[in-house]
Amino acid sequence: MRRLVCGNEHCPRRTFAEQIPALTHRHARRTDALTAQLTDVALFLGGRPGTRLVQRMTIDTCKDTVLRLIRALPLPSSGPVPHLGVDEFAVRRGRTYATILIDMATHRPIDVLADRAAATFASWLRNHPEVRIICRDRAGSYRDGAQTGAPQARQVADAWHLLNNLAQAVERVIGRHRSDLRQPLTSHDDRSDEGPASEGRDRAELDIHGRPRPLVARTRERHQQIHERIERGDSLRAIARDLQLSRGTVNRFARTAEVDELLLAAIHRPTLIDDYRLYLHHRWMEGCTSASALAREIQRLGYRGDVNTVRRHLKPYRNGAIPTTAPLPHLTVRRVTDWIMRRPEHLTDAERKGLDELCERNHVLATTVEYARRLALMVRDRHSEHLALDVWIADVRLDGQQELRTLANGMRRDRAAIQAVLTTTYTSGAVEGNVTRIKLLKRQMYGRANFDLLRRRILLSP
């Protein structure tokens, strides 16, 4: 780079620096290549992490300079957006939420709104009359905003969110009938009542050292005290006050005639290893008796515990108390919900028999299974037969459980968007993927950036 001297003695500038096109600019402290490199680092990592990286590259800068490079970038122009995706994300979880808008053709974010209000979304849609399809979840604010700001657009609810709403309703129904889950399934047990099963129950009342579990002794003592006080004519309120128990606990003990019903829930609480009992039993019977090896195997299957839990589970096996059949599954609300929501052909024979037995015990669960599978089949296979959705809503509102009736009432208000689920292939998968990317950006920024910087990183990040 040449340095030039002015020959005019009256000129206020005596020297001039020659500028090289596409390399330098007047008064610039960095070359264009270095600025572009720092900008890329800023978009990928943010302020402090980006600064630490460039310092390892022997580039002297600070976080404020890196952030100024992000704010100096022009925001991209979206152009026409005929297919729009919308969803919320948490700026501050539980307190502040914003809205992300996605071009469903390119799967790229086109704008970020500062809140999730219907009026804000409607105002944005009025400035984009080219929108024809809106993919969204079942949030009422986006439904109302779309109806107000883009009445010409067709709203499409997301199939996954609809199935998730159905699963939540089914889970609440099963939760109200959890007492039926505490009774062992005869379809999973071919042992006699006085044989190994009763021995297993006796072992369950002992800890890993063979001593009586304090919880079992406390439950038996409380059950006896409460029923003795009831026989004397004491009120439940007085019993709760004297024994320093809640009214709900006293009511639960009073409704239970036999203490074994209470112990069934107390000694069979869910643990991390419950889902892998059957696998461990089969592997032990195959000859694999190493707790460390078995722990590594089930960790690859999703087990999140440590090897000591596996050792405690296998201790009865080492002591010679090997069950002749596979251990009984621990029925939980979520396990039964999973049985109902999965396709029937994907269930094992044991799971299918267990679900059939539960339906025979309780007609409420039977009708819930019928309605849940009817709707799940319509959504998964895109069955849009004439009035199929309307018939399902009418049937559920007629004799379904309260949780399913609440879901049906919400679906009736959002009927057009849900009907579009059954007749189109649009989903909100691209929107959910961008929401996951936003969570990564927020973690990189340590939650300390304001909305302006977060919005720019969402729209400009590659």
Give an overview in words.
The structure is a single chain. With 462 residues, this protein is α/β, with parallel strands linked by helices. It has 4 domains: 3-72, no CATH class; 83-158 and 427-460, Nucleotidyltransferase, domain 5 (2-Layer Sandwich); 162-179 and 332-414, no CATH class; 188-318, no CATH class. It has helices at 32-45, 48-56, 63-72, 118-126, 140-149, 159-176, 196-204, 214-231, 236-243, 247-255, 259-267, 277-285, 291-300, 307-318, 333-341, 349-361, 363-380, 388-399, 402-413, 415-423, 429-444, 451-460; strands at 3-5, 15-17, 83-92, 96-103, 108-113, 133-136, 154-157. The strands form 2 sheets. It has a 5-stranded mixed beta sheet, with helices on both faces. It has a two-stranded antiparallel ribbon with strand order 1-2. Strand 4 and strand 5 form a beta hairpin. Helix 1 crosses helix 2 (48-56). It is extended, with a radius of gyration of 32 Å.
Summarize the structure.
The protein has 462 residues and is an alpha/beta fold. It has helices at 32-45, 48-56, 63-72, 118-126, 140-149, 159-176, 196-204, 214-231, 236-243, 247-255, 259-267, 277-285, 291-300, 307-318, 333-341, 349-361, 363-380, 388-399, 402-413, 415-423, 429-444, 451-460; strands at residues 3-5, 15-17, 83-92, 96-103, 108-113, 133-136, 154-157.
C-alpha-based Rg, rounded: 32 Å
The secondary-structure element order is EEHHHEEEHEHEHHHHHHHHHHHHHHHHH
Strands, count: 7
Alpha-carbon distance between the two ends = 35 Å
How many distinct domains? 4
- Classify the oligomer: single chain
- Compute the average pLDDT: 84
Overall SS class: alpha/beta
Characterize the main sheet.
5 strands, mixed
Major β-sheet strand ordering? 5-4-3-6-7
Region (Disordered): 178-207
Protein name: Transposase
Domain Transposase IS204/IS1001/IS1096/IS1165 DDE: 84-183, 335-458
InterPro entries: Transpos_ISL3, Transposase_DDE
